Amino acid sequence: MFKDIFRKTKYVTISSVPAPRRLAPEAAPETVMIRKELPDGLWVKCPKCGEVLFTKDLEKNAKVCTKCSYHFRISARERLELLVDEGTFAEWDNDLQTVDVLEFPGYSEKLAEAREKAQMPEGALTGRGVIEGVPVVLCFNEGAFMMGSMGSVVGEKFTRAIERAIDLRLPVIIFSTSGGARMQEGILSLYQMAKTSAALTRLAEAGLLYISVLTDPTFGGVTASYASLGDILIAEPGALIGFTGPRVIKQTIRQELPPGAQTAEFNQEHGLIDLVVERSQMRSLLGRLLRYHQEGAGYGSAVRI
Amino acid sequence: MAQPLEFEKPLLELEQKILELQKFSAEKGIDLSVEITTLEHKAVVLKKNIYGRLQPWQKVQIARHSERPNFYDYVQLLFEDFIEMRGDRLFADDRAIVGGVALFKGVPVTVIAQVKGKDTKENLQRNFGMPHPEGYRKALRLMEQAEKFHRPILTFIDTPGAACDLAAEERGQGEAIARCLVAMAGYHVPIISTVMGEGGSGGALALGVGNVVLMLEHTFYSVIAPESCASILWKDPSKAQEAATALKFTAEDCLRLGVADEIVKEPLGGAHKDAHRAGEELARVLEKHLSRLRGEAPEVLRQKRYDKLRAIGIFQEKQRLDQSVSETLTNLDEDVKITE
Q1: What is the rounded distance in angstroms from the CA atom of residue A241 to the CA atom of residue A177?
Q2: Nearest CA to CA, how far is A254 from chain B (Å)?
Q3: Which residue of B has its CA nearest to A252?
Q4: Residue A128: pLDDT above 80?
Q5: φ and ψ at B56, to 5 degrees?
Q6: Is the per-residue pLDDT at A25 higher than 60?
Q7: Sign of the C-alpha dihedral, residues B41, B45, B48, B50?
Q8: How many CB pairs under 8 A join A and B?
Q9: Which residue has the higher pLDDT, A305 or B81?
Q10: Distance, in angstroms, between B33 CA and closest chain A CA?
Q11: Which of A7, A53, A268, B256 yields a CA-CA distance of 20 to 30 A from A251?
């Protein structure tokens, strides 16, 4: 009994994930490099509620906190796995390579780092897959690649995917995660906004469905182009979505945003998005929406509610 | 007399000196013509040196000059008539974007322009040329009418960027800009977009989806303001000059990168030195492009606009690597076209 007093207490080591920092400004990928992804380790602390979570449980729960439903950021590939019917995804244009055309200071190094970090050649994943039996064209930004920023390659991959959707007569779903247009490719990045939007003009004219899913964070030139152009706009709970990042707003006009501004829920209250949907419900919702828009399918006939 | 910029000061000092010598010579009756001629010659060389090779940052200063002519300064020079139409029919009338119907060389056109104020009072009204969503929605409303009535659209870009405040976020700034991009891509009428001063990011691009993109000689068109770029890159907004060089956003750069189609020459030292001449030159270039575009079939105009956007972006592709990259790089080496 007495010896217990001197017994060395065992502590569980918990890696704490940094608190989510408010969002980067338009075209400011580097400033939001603090990632909310899970560090290696058995345990992780939820940045929102502080709950200590067993990593395996968290992963089983699609990286959503089991206590407070905080949605951790996840990679494009993880998202893909949560969505498509197994073995149905065929990736497109994986061989597009970035060119440092402006010879922008530090860009080559940043690209190398981003490739290493994201384990992807660029910050976009596109291709064709099947969700709950419905074929669809899928595009994802990769947040770990320079904050999902859009340069020539991302713009080109998305545009090609949309154009192929028109040829194949398929609906398109884009998952946005991006700080905006990529500064390091200057005006070329800016015009990727116009290029992707122009492709979406054609998709709409072809009568094809486009669902835009906004995830944490979606800002700047991506909000001001394809992310806002869906027939249906869906966001994940708590995702920060806006045009100008709060830090830039503060710097520029010394206005402090009220708590909760620019969240998915804020955007929904202001009439800017249709639905706020938990990650665990996303696949089922998308599956239903895709079926309801299927050509030739009697409206709602294939539906199980 | 326009307020001098820092890099113009040596020239102004020299010109002042010449004036003084002339005055002195006249008063005292001493012949100083040799000295004066030497100085005048020196002034010519200096002028060429200063204005002939302006650095990106100096162009930024000219583009942002408080006396740089705005859309209203050009209205009389460009149009025989201009009837301003106001409001987005949804929320408000944004004074940072002006639009209406105008007569250009006898042709009715729809005009959309971003306008900065000339003084503090006007700048407050016009939010320093930074439009809110209602501004873009007004632009969209007027452009839809242009499509309906088969009128060409002329847009004039001059903004530090779209408004960045809570109100803009609440009313969907991103969506308002995105809608302009989508709509402009789909129109069957000629669209000419002219960067007249600052081409600030998405807020500028919203009016930039033209068949033809013109840039005045001393303007810039950028994905981000040089100050913001510097504060991100070097945590130091005062390094904006370096950022201005790194971003490659001058008219020449944009021409090389396939975004701008032609550079409109400005009077020596910038449009604010002689707004009349600047306006005449702009009118000449606009007319040239508009008459060409008006000869195109509606579907062709639309297709060509798509093709132009489709071609913007530089990347390598393993399979088709050599072709796409070498083509682009050759294009980059081509000489810069400047209209004379």
Answers
A1: 9
A2: 9
A3: B164
A4: yes
A5: -50, -45
A6: no
A7: negative
A8: 211
A9: B81
A10: 50
A11: A268
